[in-house]
C-alpha cells in the first residue's frame, strides 16, 4: 500500500509542475519523459544494485576520509575540542570546511574540476535534450554551489534573455555544494546524501522545463566563454590570454573564503534556531500546544503522506520539511543526527528525509540568489527574477519532493 502511495505521490508532484506551469502548451513532454525515466533508473541503480551501492559507498568513504584528514589540522590547533567523546556541532561539521573548500578550489585552479564539469555537462545535454548552458550550469552547481556557479557564468547570463535567466535562478534553488557534502555526511546517512545529489541535478532540469518552459533556438543554444568555468577550457586563446593568480595567493584567498562560509553558516543556524524558539514561545502564549512545528506540519502533511509514510511518521516528516524550508537543512540535520541511524526511523523514512533535506531550498537562499543576480545582470532581467520569488521557492520544493519520492520508491 505504502509503495502505491509513493508512486501516486510522484505522479501528483509531476502534475503539480504541469498545473503551475507558466506555459503548459510549450512543455516538451518527450524531454520530460526521458529525464524522468533516466532519474528513476539512476535512483534504482544507486539504491538497489550492488555495484550502484558500492559506487555510493566508495564515494561516501572518500568524503569521510577527507573529513578525517581535516580533523588532523583541527586537532593541531584545538586538541581539547577534537579529542573528546562527542565533538561540538561547530567543530565536527563546520570546521572541516576549512580544508575541503580549498581542496575543490585547487582542483579548479589546476583545471581538473572544469574538465569534469565540461564533459558531464555535454553528456547531460545530449541525454536530456536540454539547452547546453542549462545542462552545464546544472553540473557546475553540483560542484561549485549556486552563487559560485552564477558568478562564473556572468557573461552568459548577460547574453541570455530574461526568461532563461529565470530558469537559472529557479535551478539555483536545488543544489548543494560538493565542498560542503563532507559536513552533511557527518550528520546524515552518507549513501543517501550522495544519491540525492545527481538526482537533484536532473530533477532541477525537469521542474524548470515544466514550470518555465522556454524555447531556445539553435542560434541561442551557445556557450559564452566564461573565466573560471568549465566552458573556458574549450577556448585555447582564453587559456593563453588568462593570467593565473599566483598559487599561494589564490590558496590564501580560498582559505579565507572557507572561513567566511563557516561563519555565515554558523550565524544563520544560531539565528534561525533562536528565532524559531522565539516564535514557539509567542505561539505558546496563545495556546500551549501551538508551535511553529505544528503549523508547518499541518501545511506540509499532504506532501509528506504522499511519500508513502505511516500517519505518525508523515506528520513528523511534514514538520521537518516545513522547518527546513523556513530555516535551513543544517537545523533539521542537527535535530535528527543522533537518531537517524536508529530504529526510530524506518529505512524508507530515513531515505526520503535525507534526500529531501539535501538541498539549499529555503527562504534565505531566495535572498542570496536575487542578490547575486542583482550584481550580475541588468535591472530588467533582475526585476523578472525578483518578481518570480514564489516560482523560485516552488521549484526548489518540487525538486526536493520529486527526488525524495524517486529514491523512496526503491528503499523499504
From TrEMBL:
Keyword Lipid biosynthesis: no
Domain Concentrative nucleoside transporter C-terminal per the UniProt entry, residue ranges: 192-408
Pfam families membership: Gate (PF07670), Nucleos_tra2_C (PF07662), Nucleos_tra2_N (PF01773)
Subcellular location: Cell membrane
Membrane topology: Multi-pass membrane protein
Limits of the Nucleoside transporter/FeoB GTPase Gate domain: 90-188
Keywords, comma-separated and alphabetical: Cell membrane, Membrane, Transmembrane, Transmembrane helix
All residue ranges annotated as the Concentrative nucleoside transporter N-terminal domain in the record: 8-79
UniProt keyword Transmembrane helix present: yes
Membrane-spanning ranges: 31-51, 63-82, 94-117, 166-184, 261-279, 291-311, 351-377, 389-411
Domain of life, source organism: Bacteria
Cited PANTHER family: PURINE NUCLEOSIDE TRANSPORT PROTEIN NUPG, SODIUM/NUCLEOSIDE COTRANSPORTER
Family affiliation: Belongs to the concentrative nucleoside transporter (CNT) (TC 2.A.41) family.
Protein name: Nucleoside transporter
